[in-house]
From TrEMBL, chains A, B, C, D:
Pfam families: 4HBT. SUPFAM superfamilies: Thioesterase/thiol ester dehydrase-isomerase (SSF54637). Residues 53-127 form the Thioesterase domain. This is Putative domain 1. Keywords: Hydrolase.
Amino acid sequence: MDLSPRDPVWNTRVRNSFAAQDFMTHLGAELVHLAPGAVDIELKMRRELTQQHGFFHAGATSSIADSAAGYAALSLFAADFGVLTSEYKINLLNPANQPVLLARGRVVKPGKTLTIAKADVYGLDDGLQVHVATGLFTLVSVSGVKD
Amino acid sequence: MDLSPRDPVWNTRVRNSFAAQDFMTHLGAELVHLAPGAVDIELKMRRELTQQHGFFHAGATSSIADSAAGYAALSLFAADFGVLTSEYKINLLNPANQPVLLARGRVVKPGKTLTIAKADVYGLDDGLQVHVATGLFTLVSVSGVKD
Amino acid sequence: MDLSPRDPVWNTRVRNSFAAQDFMTHLGAELVHLAPGAVDIELKMRRELTQQHGFFHAGATSSIADSAAGYAALSLFAADFGVLTSEYKINLLNPANQPVLLARGRVVKPGKTLTIAKADVYGLDDGLQVHVATGLFTLVSVSGVKD
Amino acid sequence: MDLSPRDPVWNTRVRNSFAAQDFMTHLGAELVHLAPGAVDIELKMRRELTQQHGFFHAGATSSIADSAAGYAALSLFAADFGVLTSEYKINLLNPANQPVLLARGRVVKPGKTLTIAKADVYGLDDGLQVHVATGLFTLVSVSGVKD
């Protein structure tokens, strides 16, 4: 599997695009790791992110999983292509109320049009790690979209 | 398909549980329709909900789809059972930047333990309706969880 | 949604391609309905299609769902494009051991590169109809592939 | 993650159940590896398994992935519980026409009612290995079903 970036400034491009996702800012998500085909995003527990039982809402968990998978894909795209999520599936394995949620997005198969990525989400609590969710994502590269 | 509620106060219960989802409040989502096995949730466009191109973030779209599907399921649960999302899959059909996003959650197959629901999300703009996303959800009924 | 076929001989093309799927022949599947964006495939119960409890194997159910969705998509493709399944998700709603299984593939969103389709599978028994499965499919149009 | 079998004769039970899947016999599939929470199933290329371009039909690929995931789950079930697939999602990564298709089912999260498993399918050709598909599966343990 070839995970060489095609855009020399892929690193800056991914970071700038992430910073431009107002939704990630609204959730309080941070990009904490970036390598070709690999992006980690972290979310700290806040009441604003919970569902009715005090766990992270599946939507919050999925949102950072989606961004992690999407930016893992974008890191491999050529300079003039943007990224859109075409579809994804996610299994919520355990209810999560840890202080930190970490989503690890990894490219499974890069492609010119379609890139397949996976994301695993972990709840981190004082050295303990719980597998919170696992998902599969299809990302589309869109020409002429600034990312 | 039997869509009779088993809890006489299902209506109040779903509304109270939705009101207790701080994440929905944080997004600005509103429960706009409620019937046995059917829940609609609406989200008004705000910059805080967008990704890098100014469209609704897939995570925001999925979040209201998930809550709509989950509450459609909960509306049919017995009094002492709560709802958790086990997994879902969503296809993002069109990028969405309409003033209003409407998620329609509908139960496909009710069950004692597992309920299958679908959700369709539409972008609404001055009478025009765009099909933004479609998804399938597995909801679990959890005993002893207050909802 | 525009469901106009782009290939004047779409009907013959879909039927010929289905006839060339040796796997469908091996299962005993028949194409029983064909319209632009809509294909129904039928499977008669045989012991060779069952799992360990005597129900249709999820793989058999999924296979006709996949072909129904794929050919619903192909019916709308231009003449020199073939169809491949990129991904799908399927929920098995009820165990099926009816005499006939019917998969209804319908295009949800046609597209130049990606077409999204759904398929619902029903078990038919003497006028009774059970909803056996529901799925969502992403189909890719591939140029230069004869179909 | 606890992958201890709860049934002392789990090994025999999984092998007998697989042997009772007439559909697997019809496809020519073989169970080639079995450990607690892990099952590999192999399929040799035959014309009867192909779609219209001569590749393995997505339905054949998915069928062995489903059985591999299902039996990986069953290997951990207590003695009087059978296994049913509730839902799955699969991404077809590469068209496959290798001599051998190998599906590796692995439990991701065991559970009393729901078990989540993944399956990866590889095309094997003279030492070369191509990643053909990856999927996520929800398996249900059903009491009183002989498996």
